[in-house]
Structures are given as C-alpha cells and as structure tokens.
C-alpha cells in the first residue's frame, strides 16, 4: 500500500509546535500542520475544594466557523472530556487533603482541513506537559486544622504539572485511525479521509489503547459513497497497530518540548 | 355550605394517581447473558412516515421518521440523513441547559446517524432528506449519566430501526444494537448499565455481522476485554434482531 504522501501506515503527518507562549495562562501550546490546520490550547488553573467539585478538569472546544452546538464541536468536546476524565492522572492536581487545582482547558481550532480531533488532542498534551503551577508553601496536611493553601509569590519557584507527583505524567491522547479495505492507516490526511471505508477514534494512555473507541465518517459530507461497515478483524488490527507504534508519539512530543524550551525567544512566529 | 369562591369539580370526579407508586413489577432476568424484556410497537404517530415506541426497564423511547422529503437547493444524487435526539426536560442529565442539545444528546444522535447512513439505500432517494427525531420520554429516577448512556443508546438504535422499517424506506438490513458491561472483576453482563468497560456495537446481522456502529467507553484492563465485550454485544444484537423479526412478522 502506498499513501498519497508516501508515509508508512503508522506514520503521523509532520507538525510544527510551540509551547508556553501565552503569558496569562498556566500552560499553552500551538500546533500547525502542513495542511494548514492550526490549534491553540490554553490551560488555566484554579484552587478548589475537592469535595465541592464533580470534575477537576473542564474542557471547552471552539472551532472557527462552526457553532458551539454543532455536531463536530460537541463530539470532539465530549470525546476529549471523557478521555481526560478516565485517564488523566488526577493525583498531580491534589494540593492538600482538602484542596486541589482545577484545570480549565480551552482549545481553539483556528483552521482545519482534516478531522481535527488528533490535532486538538496533541496540542492539549503539549499544553498540559508545559503547564506550570505556583509552589505551595503551606502545609499539605490540613485534615485536622483547616487552612487555606498559600503559594510562593515568586513565579521562578513554580513547578511543572508534570513534576507535581512521583508518577510519570503522561496525559492521554486521541488517535485517528482510517480503515480502507484491509489497510489500516494512522492519522489519515484530508485526501485519505474522503476515501476511507470507515474511521476509528481511539484513546491512548499508558502505552495502550484506551476508551473511548468509536467509529465515524470523517468525509466532508454525510452521504459519503465510500462509507462502509467494519469487521471485527479491522478493529482488532487497528488497536494492535496503535499499541505497537503510538508509544513513540509520546517520545516525539516530549523531545519536541525539550527542543522548544532551548529555543525561548518569546515569539510564536 | 360549599365555598362558592372555589371552582369545585362535579360530584362524580376522581383523583388522578399522580406520583403514586407503580406496583407493576418487571420479571427478573434469567441471567447476565440475556437482554432485558422489552415492549415494542410501531406506527403510533399518524403524521410521521414511520414511528416506533419502545419500553425497556425504566427507559421509554419514541422514534419518528419523516421522509424521504424533497430538499431545496442544488441537486444531490443521494439522500441525506439527519438525526436529532432529545431527552424530555424532566430527565436530569449532566451539563445540560435544556435549551440546546446537550453533549450526551449530540453523541447519541451522531452514533445513530452513523449507523443509519450505512444501512439506508441512500442512492434510491436523490435530492431527498430523511429526518429522524428521537425522544427519550422516561429514564431512571436519578437521570442519565455516562454509566447509562450506552445502554440507552443501544435501545434507541433498536427503536429507530423499527421506525425506519415502518416508514417503508429501503434498507440494506435492519440495524440492531447490543451493549455489554465488563465489570471490574472481568465479568461480562449483557444489557446492564454501571461502572466498568461499556461496549456498544451496532451490526447488520444479515450482512455477515457488518459492524456499523462501535462505541466503547469506561475503564478497561486490556485488548482482551475489548474483543470479549464486542463479541458479547454482537450476540445481544442478534438476539434483539430475532425478537424484532418476530414482531415485524406478527405485525403484518
């Protein structure tokens, strides 16, 4: 099988990323794709009492040119929220026995050519990995004596969210998988999406495919003549392909963050 | 002497039992491997081209199909399908403002649309639209959340398929849907809601079990869970299909 841009079945498209450029946010990232897709994600935090909050993460997605109640926007928001609520390491957000950080993740898709769920998810990963939170200076045990958490005034003391706990911090991501006949493609391009038999969106966390796993039509119009059903084998092979190769994606993104930190010039252009 | 300021009812009135406890009990299921008993009927909305009504446990679902209806504008060589799902405002759900469709309603509508687009022979209906409206009339007392949505969606797909048949729209096969819960201890429970891995699979049984809808959510322990849960959901979809077949044959 040859893909139009000569990628291997498991190969993702090239992307350009920049992190930590929004001064008013705790974390931010931008990804630009070669097909013109662009997404900016901002992560902001707030100190909350855990007992009073149902979720410690709130996600909002905005796609340029689409209404907030459109199917595309609500589906991406639903899938991203479900993924993060199921697989995010919430222990990192705990401040004291009563208080936690709550994260507000705002995603803006400025332009997109292909289905933007992976673009939004990868940008969210980068923004979360580069999120900095102020250093807690008060006691962490407030079980007996209730005390409001206080923080260091010096932003240089701030800690990366990734370093807030001993466990390895890897936010989950969403992968787009295309199925054409017996072929499985990771990260299909716009042209590939128009001829796919079917597509699967799968979560990936802790080096394995995780939920949500859903199928959908990625073509521009809902009456895509190519759209066909899936068989069990295609689903199993898609999960196996993701399990085999998507771990490398985390390494590539982490390397990208390291390179970006060496190249801080305050500009995103 | 009666109070003349009040508008009193005639003498032969009776008090409606609003809010009174419903004494009818559902028969317990034989095992975790069989779907719940359900009540299904069709052709209940006269001005719709097709409609159906389904009751299963505490869920009450109604589906209406309007179409194929002509559309204005440029020529399209295939029909298009639109699906709208709405919970009645008395059903509580997470993050809904009841003005627009909530995230859950959108997700259900989009899943049903994916299933229907694959089953309806859209080439037969050029420049037409088929509009499907799904109303969830009742659900559990504590509302709808992520742990129940898969099971509800499975029955919504089954109900909608019958409404499509009732409308006379040509289909490749009737889509039926099955749902399985994989509990934390790894046990498979068919047609049950709860915490754990939820697998929802919609198939066309007469077309070699072609999978038209797949939705897995909740916590999972590995790839084996996915395969087992899918296989179990497909079995449920087949059982539901044979029930729908017998209903449609009786209905003729």
TrEMBL record, chain A:
Keyword Kinase: no
Cellular localisation: Cytoplasm; Nucleus, Nucleolus
A GO molecular-function descriptor: mRNA 3'-UTR AU-rich region binding
Residues spanning the membrane: none
GO terms classed as biological process: exonucleolytic trimming to generate mature 3'-end of 5.8S rRNA from tricistronic rRNA transcript (SSU-rRNA, 5.8S rRNA, LSU-rRNA); nuclear mRNA surveillance; nuclear polyadenylation-dependent rRNA catabolic process; rRNA catabolic process; TRAMP-dependent tRNA surveillance pathway; U1 snRNA 3'-end processing; U4 snRNA 3'-end processing; U5 snRNA 3'-end processing
InterPro entries: ExoRNase_PH_dom1, ExoRNase_PH_dom2_sf, Exosome_comp_Rrp42_subfam, PNPase/RNase_PH_dom_sf, Ribosomal_Su5_D2-typ_SF
Cited Gene3D superfamilies: GHMP Kinase, N-terminal domain
Cytoplasm is among the record's keywords: yes
Keywords of the record: Cytoplasm, Exosome
Gene Ontology cellular-component terms listed: cytoplasmic exosome (RNase complex); nuclear exosome (RNase complex); nucleolus
Pfam families reported in the protein's UniProt record: RNase_PH (PF01138)
Record domain Exoribonuclease phosphorolytic: where: 11-134
Entry similarity comment: Belongs to the RNase PH family.
Protein's name in the database: Ribosomal RNA-processing protein 42
Species, as recorded: Scheffersomyces spartinae
From TrEMBL, chain B:
GO biological process, one term: poly(A)-dependent snoRNA 3'-end processing
GO molecular function, one term: RNA binding
Name of this protein: 3'-5'-exoribonuclease
Domain Exoribonuclease phosphorolytic, chain residue ranges per copy: 40-170
InterPro entries: ExoRNase_PH_dom1, PNPase/RNase_PH_dom_sf, Ribosomal_Su5_D2-typ_SF, RNase_PH
Keywords noted in UniProt: Cytoplasm, Exosome, Nucleus, RNA-binding, rRNA processing
The UniProt record lists the keyword Metal-binding: no
UniProt subcellular location: Cytoplasm; Nucleus
Organism, as annotated: Scheffersomyces spartinae
Gene3D superfamilies associated with the record: GHMP Kinase, N-terminal domain (3.30.230.70)
GO cellular component: cytoplasmic exosome (RNase complex); nuclear exosome (RNase complex); nucleolus
Matches recorded under SUPFAM superfamilies: Ribosomal protein S5 domain 2-like
Region described as Disordered: 1-34
Family: Belongs to the RNase PH family.
């Amino acid at each position: 099988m040859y893909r139009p841009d000569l990628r291997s079945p498991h190969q993702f498209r090239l992307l350009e990323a920049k992190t930590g450029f929004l001064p008013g946010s705790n974390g931010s990232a931008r990804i630009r794709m070669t097909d013109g897709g662009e997404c900016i994600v901002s992560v902001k935090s707030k100190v909350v009492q855990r007992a009073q909050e149902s979720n410690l993460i709130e996600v909002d997605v905005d796609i340029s040119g689409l209404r907030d109640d459109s199917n595309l926007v609500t589906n991406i928001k639903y899938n991203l929220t479900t993924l993060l609520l199921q697989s995010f390491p919430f222990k990192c957000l705990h401040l004291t026995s009563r208080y936690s950080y709550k994260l507000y993740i705002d995603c803006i898709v400025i332009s997109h050519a292909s289905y933007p769920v992976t673009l939004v998810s990868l940008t969210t990963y980068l923004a979360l990995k580069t999120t900095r939170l102020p250093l807690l200076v008060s006691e962490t045990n407030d079980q007996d004596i209730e005390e409001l958490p206080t923080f260091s005034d010096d932003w240089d003391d701030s800690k990366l969210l990734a370093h807030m706990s001993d466990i390895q911090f890897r936010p989950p991501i969403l992968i787009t998988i295309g199925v054409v006949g017996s072929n499985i493609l990771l990260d299909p391009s716009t042209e590939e999406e128009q001829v796919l038999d079917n597509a699967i969106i799968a979560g990936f966390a802790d080096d394995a495919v995780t939920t949500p796993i859903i199928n959908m039509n990625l073509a521009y119009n809902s009456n895509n003549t190519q759209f066909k059903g899936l068989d069990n084998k295609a689903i199993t092979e898609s999960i196996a392909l993701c399990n085999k190769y998507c771990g490398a994606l985390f390494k590539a993104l982490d390397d990208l963050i390291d390179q970006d930190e060496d190249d801080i010039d305050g500009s995103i252009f | 002497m009666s109070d003349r300021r009040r508008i009193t009812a005639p003498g032969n009135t009776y008090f409606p039992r609003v809010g009174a406890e419903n004494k009818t009990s559902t028969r317990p299921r034989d095992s975790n491997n069989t779907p719940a008993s359900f009540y299904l009927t069709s052709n209940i909305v006269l001005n719709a081209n097709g409609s159906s009504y389904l009751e299963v446990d505490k869920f009450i679902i109604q589906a209406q199909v309007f179409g194929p209806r002509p559309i204005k504008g440029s020529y399209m060589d295939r029909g298009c399908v639109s699906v709208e799902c709405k919970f009645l405002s008395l059903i509580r759900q997470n993050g809904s403002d009841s003005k627009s469709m909530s995230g859950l309603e959108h997700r259900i509508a989009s899943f049903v649309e994916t299933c229907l687009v694959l089953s309806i022979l859209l080439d037969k209906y050029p420049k037409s639209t088929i509009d499907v409206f799904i109303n969830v009339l009742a659900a559990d007392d504590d509302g709808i959340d992520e742990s129940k949505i898969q099971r509800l969606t499975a029955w919504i797909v089954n109900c909608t398929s019958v409404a499509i048949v009732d409308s006379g729209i040509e289909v490749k096969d009737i889509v039926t849907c099955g749902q399985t819960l994989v509990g934390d201890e790894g046990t498979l429970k068919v047609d049950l809601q709860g915490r754990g891995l939820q697998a929802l699979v919609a198939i066309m049984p007469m077309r070699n079990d072609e999978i038209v809808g797949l939705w897995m959510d909740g916590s999972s322990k590995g790839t084996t869970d996915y395969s087992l849960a899918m296989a179990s959901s497909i079995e449920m979809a087949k059982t539901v299909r044979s029930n729908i077949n017998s209903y449609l044959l009786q209905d003729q």
